[in-house]
Specification:
The chain is an alpha/beta fold. It has a domain at 2-176: Alpha-Beta Barrel (TIM Barrel). Helices cover 44% and strands 16% of the residues. The chain has 14 helices and 12 strands.
Length: 298
């Protein structure tokens, strides 16, 4: 199943995220098999960032697939730039900070292409809102990368609506997504206008941490226990598990939310993908909403 970010770019309705790739300690063969498994399911889009794994995940991914052009031809690559970490690999960084300069964006994109071993990045995101941003510099970098055929489309991550609009105003082409934290545990994006803006502009948001980092599985508070009980009740009705219902809850939203699956276990990825076959009713959706809010709708 595919979804269209623009007229020239289709990605899968769910994305595989490799944030923890370095932690999984997979061999090249295991990474290759994981990618094959995702592609067989229909997940052809892989979410990266230059900083993941202390600047190692893009390299690990690229090394594992360096001789698999057949797999690369099927993949869509999302990656991010703009954060500079304190790292032995970047000794010039004295403090963690953001850099959305023309020089850094263009260098970072070209470095990601090299590390990943691909010819083009399908979507390049600014990773975090930068209080020192010059939107016209970002626009200049984006335009250069697009004209050179190095990046097909651009977006942002963790941007509030006013930050999104400010950057969009400097561009000659539309941003295609905002990757934000959304789950039935984390509802802030419903209140801050981010999902409203996505619908206004007809763009689809990506949801990072769609399972809220697994917090629901170790529920301790009254709110979390109540939510967990409701998820169990609904999951029993669909003969599935609560994580699948959490994905289905996101997928049901009219904004066209694209969940980013963060597990390295193919069985859990298969379970997540099965959420595409579940159509929650409006009342079931609101049962989860009310349980998470801890109060009825007005």
């Amino acid at each position: 199943m595919k979804t269209s970010l623009n007229q020239d770019l289709n990605i899968s309705k769910m994305v595989h995220g490799v944030w923890r790739l370095a932690d999984w300690n997979y061999s090249n063969k295991e990474i290759e098999e994981l990618v094959e498994g995702c592609l067989e399911l229909g997940i052809n889009t892989f979410d990266h960032a230059d900083i993941y794994g202390d600047y190692s995940c893009e390299t690990l991914f690229g090394e594992a697939l360096k001789n698999r052009s057949d797999l690369k031809e099927q993949m869509k690559i999302v990656t991010k730039c703009g954060i500079k970490l304190i790292s032995e690999k970047r000794p010039e960084h004295r403090i963690k900070h953001y850099d959305t300069s023309y020089e850094h964006i263009t260098w970072s994109a070209e470095n990601s292409l090299k590390m990943l071993g691909v010819d083009v990045i399908d979507v390049l995101l600014i990773h975090r809102p930068d209080p020192f941003i010059d939107t016209h510099e970002v626009a200049k970098a984006f335009s250069k990368l697009k004209e050179e055929g190095k990046v097909k489309a651009f977006g942002v991550s963790n941007f509030l609506p006013h930050q999104f609009k400010a950057l969009q105003a400097a561009l000659d082409f539309p941003l295609v997504t905002n990757q934000i934290e959304i789950s039935c545990v984390s509802l802030k994006e419903f209140d801050n206008g981010s999902l409203d803006l996505c619908q206004e502009l007809n763009i689809q948001p990506m949801a990072w941490s769609p399972l809220a980092g697994g917090a629901i599985f170790n529920a301790q508070t009254h709110r979390m226990m109540t939510l967990k009980n409701v998820l169990h009740k609904i999951s029993d009705q669909y003969s599935t598990t609560i994580d699948v219902i959490m994905y289905a809850w996101l997928l049901a939203h009219p904004a066209g939310i694209i969940p980013v699956i963060g597990t390295g276990k193919i069985e859990r990825i298969k379970a997540a993908y099965s959420a595409l076959d579940i159509q929650l009713s409006r009342q079931e959706w609101f049962e989860i909403w009310v349980a998470s809010r801890g109060e009825s709708v007005p």
